[in-house]
Design a protein that fits this description.
This is TonB-dependent receptor. GO terms for molecular function: siderophore uptake transmembrane transporter activity. Keywords: Cell outer membrane, Membrane, Receptor, Signal, TonB box, Transmembrane, Transmembrane beta strand, Transport. It holds the Pfam family TonB_dep_Rec_b-barrel. The protein is mainly β and 817 residues long. The chain has a single domain, classed as TonB-dependent receptor, beta-barrel domain (Maltoporin, Chain A, Beta Barrel). It has a 22-stranded antiparallel beta barrel. A hairpin with a 2-residue loop joins strand 18 and strand 19. The longest helix is centred in the N-terminal third of the chain and has 24 residues. The N terminus is likely disordered.
Length: 817
């Protein structure tokens, strides 16, 4: 059956185009009626020179202002006066006000110094703009400074695990760093590292993200209300920014903990115009696993697990208006089992053999960006990048007959490989025609190359040689996208962001595409209260096939093809935002509804490791999803006691015609109730205490409801008695898919950070406890007869639970200079 090659929304898109033209005409008319002058420049940290994303710049004594973009650039057009008082502010920094003459277009850069207030931390990077005034919703941000103070698994601060404490974001299995955002799966999250997609974002089987906190300047998560500039996924956008490097002096950090050792260095290279950042992190687990495995096996085998991250970035100021960035990221994991040579007795004499296995996977990314202030009102950014994810699971076997020269020998290797790589070119522009009006537009072109899964087998022996490759073939695809969005204050109370994204995707001689309308509106009810609403249509041209085991990345990235359609989603959200200045609180309540189409899933019992069968023959297609939820977030952003309380009430369901008799069923990570409490208290200027508590409804899974015996003919396998020739093994009867619930999940984590100024810098000790009251949370459950079962005699079964993490103490040391 031929798939529909495009989906259009004529009514919505026509309306949005009309609105864009109307706002442009109104802007032009307003500019003709009054003489205006434009102020532009950057806002940066006085200590490091790092650009501040989301800093507020406004005319003192008025409500007219703007915020800086991802490059720290601002543009503010005001009525011409003899002089203008401009103020720049950013939460946690001292405000700076300057008086500028406005007889001509003026360029001015702001430099802000941090405030040394006891315990002040920032939870949102949107500067001093109150929540109800921002033309945004469903955006979460945890600054790196605060992330370091949160309790962490084995003492290693982690970006993804911190976001799991926010409403609308759930973890998968115990300890996993995967993000299930508003009912979506991890592959439906667009993860960007300096505007470049990165595919696999976890280490240690999902327990730690690939993002080293020492190399990151800013990170935010969008779970709805997506602007048109983002596309290619259905559920969320994780936007991560690397540091540019300290412009003032050479500085760095070095630290060691149970889980990893890290080091980073940054500083100026040439006259303050060029800066660099280098950061590296290596896992420590193999140092313990090698010793433990060698001891437990009597020295016959060694098991090791290691991971690493390495980031490098160079920034160069070509001219006052031009800046170049070059960035590289490398990261990988390795799990290996090596057996020492063993000797056994063979038919003719002594046989010597050795085997082992090696699992490798990781990301590689390189990018080159050029930022240019084209005019005081127009800012441009061009990016050229390549990104790659590679997975390989291999086994080796070596056999040697040592009884005689030229006797039988064998050397064989089998492996399964998978991966995806992209070459990307994109251009983005921002235009500021007048206050409270911003236009963004741009285009992206991507060349995809997918290797869904290939099996390799090589064998060399004294008798013959074999070299075989089978499995899915390499698939190429192309994707082109154009977008435009208009953020405008329509009236004193109503602001909106209207956008369109048009995409075309080509694969195997087939094309898909369509127009994706986006709408976000904010209406202020009063001084501190606003109503918000958003709608987004999204399309995704790749899928992730996953065997859901212990969490190792047995995942395949596969493209949408002629037989497997692209995924699609629509999300509608409404909410209320309110601030309580006297208490320093921000309160947001959001309700959302998401519908998903063209989902895929493995057929029952299918796996991607078997034979030469194409992956398209192993999946069921045409799946649907529906997610509904209510989210509440109460947040305190400044003072000695900061933190938040979050709660999510949600329902997450899936439906496939070929699964569960075509009936809707709960998704495996459906949670009715999910809540968290996060508290950070500055006990003293150099001592910070923190605690987090999380609760969630147990995960859904499928268990057999009964069993019966079936006849199995043994063909004389047992004794010669004819009565023994027929045995009765047990078959299980299953009910509805995911109709059983694990026990509820809850956990308490504790942490303390001790900072002290020392010669040439600062030292930091972090102590903590993961799962402080040692709750036995279920990792998975299974039936067993307690070891007294066999294939034909199952015995009395009981349900058992495996718990992964008891209380885990943590300690780490860090030195900053």
């Amino acid at each position: 059956m031929r798939l529909t090659d495009r989906i259009t929304y004529p009514t919505s898109s026509g309306l949005l185009v009309s609105l864009l033209l109307l706002t442009g005409a109104l802007t032009a008319q307003g500019q003709r009626l009054e003489t205006r002058v434009t102020f532009s420049g950057t806002v940066q940290d006085a200590r490091t020179g790092e650009k501040l994303l989301g800093a507020a710049v406004y005319a003192a004594g008025s409500q007219v202002g703007t915020t800086t973009n991802a490059a720290g650039f601002y543009s503010l057009t005001l009525p011409a006066r003899d002089s203008v008082r401009l103020t720049a502010s950013y939460l946690g920094y001292q405000r700076v006000t300057t008086v500028l003459a406005s007889h001509q277009t003026t360029a001015h850069n702001f430099t802000l110094a941090t405030r040394n207030e006891l315990g002040e931390v920032r939870v949102s990077g949107a500067a001093d703009a109150p929540l109800e005034r921002r033309v945004e919703m469903s955006i979460l941000q945890i600054p790196i400074a605060q992330l370091r103070q949160l309790p962490a698994l084995l003492g290693e601060p982690d970006v993804l695990r911190a976001f799991q404490l926010m409403p609308g974001v759930q973890a998968g299995r115990e300890g996993s760093g995967a993000l299930y955002v508003r009912g979506g799966s991890p592959d439906q999250n667009l993860t960007l590292l300096d505007d470049v997609p990165i595919y696999y974002v976890s280490h240690v089987g999902g327990f730690l993200s690939v993002f080293d906190a020492n190399a990151i300047s800013d990170v935010r998560l969008l779970k709805g209300g997506f602007p048109a500039r983002y596309g290619g996924r259905l559920s969320a956008v994780l936007d991560v920014r690397l540091k540019e490097g300290n412009k003032q002096k050479l500085s760095g950090t070095a630290g060691v903990g149970v889980l990893a050792t890290h080091v980073s260095l940054e500083g100026p290279l040439k006259n303050g115009k060029t800066t660099f950042l280098v950061s590296a992190r290596r896992g420590n687990l193999d140092l313990f696993s090698r010793l433990a495995s060698a001891r437990s096996s009597g020295g016959t085998s060694v098991v090791g697990y290691s991971f690493y991250d390495a980031s490098a970035k160079v920034s160069h100021q070509l001219t006052p208006r031009d800046q170049l960035f070059a960035a590289v990221y490398l990261g990988g994991d390795r799990l290996f089992v090596t057996q020492k040579p063993q000797t056994i007795a063979g038919p003719q004499g002594e046989l010597r053999y050795q085997n082992g296995s090696n699992l490798r996977y990781g990301n590689a990314l390189a990018s080159l960006r050029w930022n240019r202030q084209l005019t005081p009102r127009l800012f441009g950014n061009a990016t050229l990048a390549a990104t790659r994810f590679h997975y390989e699971n291999g086994q080796t076997f070596r056999l040697e007959d040592r009884s005689a020269v030229g006797a039988l020998s064998e050397n064989s290797r089998a492996s399964f490989t998978s991966g995806v790589q992209d070459l990307l070119v994109k251009a983005d522009f921002e235009y500021y025609p007048r206050p409270a009006h911003q236009l963004r537009f741009g285009a992206t072109a991507v060349q995809h190359a997918f290797t869904p899964g290939s099996n390799f087998f090589t064998s060399r022996s004294s008798a013959a040689a074999t070299d075989t490759t089978f499995g899915a073939r390499r698939v190429g695809a192309q994707e082109v996208a154009f977008y435009g969005e208009d953020e405008i204050r329509v009236t004193a109370r109503l602001s909106a962001n209207l956008g369109l994204r048009a995409v075309r995707y080509w694969v195997q001689g087939q094309s898909f595409g369509g127009v994706q309308p986006r709408l976000l509106a904010t209406y202020r009810l009063g001084e501190h209260t606003a109503l918000k609403a958003s709608y987004a249509s999204m399309q995704q041209y790749l899928h992730l096939l996953s065997n859901n085991g212990a969490g190792l990345p047995t995942d395949l990235w596969v493209p949408a093809t002629r037989r497997v359609a692209p995924q699609r989603a629509q999300q509608l959200a409404v909410g209320m935002a309110r601030t309580l200045p006297a208490w320093g609180l921000e309160i947001s309540v959001e309700a959302f509804q998401k519908s998903l189409r063209q989902l895929i899933e493995f057929r029952e019992g299918a796996t991607f490791y078997n034979s030469s069968q194409n992956w398209e023959d192993k999946v069921v297609t045409g799946g649907q999803g529906r997610v509904r939820g209510l989210e509440v977030l109460v947040q305190r952003k400044a003072g000695r006691l900061t933190g938040w309380v979050g709660y999510t009430l949600a329902r997450n369901e899936r439906q496939f015609e070929q699964l569960n008799q075509g009936q809707w069923y709960p998704y495996k990570y459906d949670r009715r109730h999910d809540g968290s409490v996060v508290l950070i208290y500055a006990l003293r200027p150099h001592i910070t205490l923190s605690t987090t508590w999380t609760y969630g409804t147990g995960n859904a899974l499928t268990l057999p409801r009964g069993n019966y015996n079936v006849i199995d003919q043994s063909y004389g396998r047992l004794s010669g008695d004819a009565s023994d020739r027929y045995l009765y093994p047990e078959a299980e009867v299953y009910g509805s898919k995911n109709s059983y619930r694990m026990r509820a999940y809850h956990r308490l984590d504790l942490g303390a950070t001790f900072t002290k100024a020392v010669r040439h810098g600062e030292r930091v000790w972090r102590l903590g406890a993961y799962n402080a009251y040692s709750r036995h949370n279920p990792y998975y459950i299974y039936y067993s007869a307690g070891g007294n079962e066999s294939y034909y005699n199952k015995g009395q079964k009981q349900l058992y639970q495996l718990s992964l993490f008891p209380i885990l103490p943590a300690i780490s040391y860090e030195r900053r200079f």
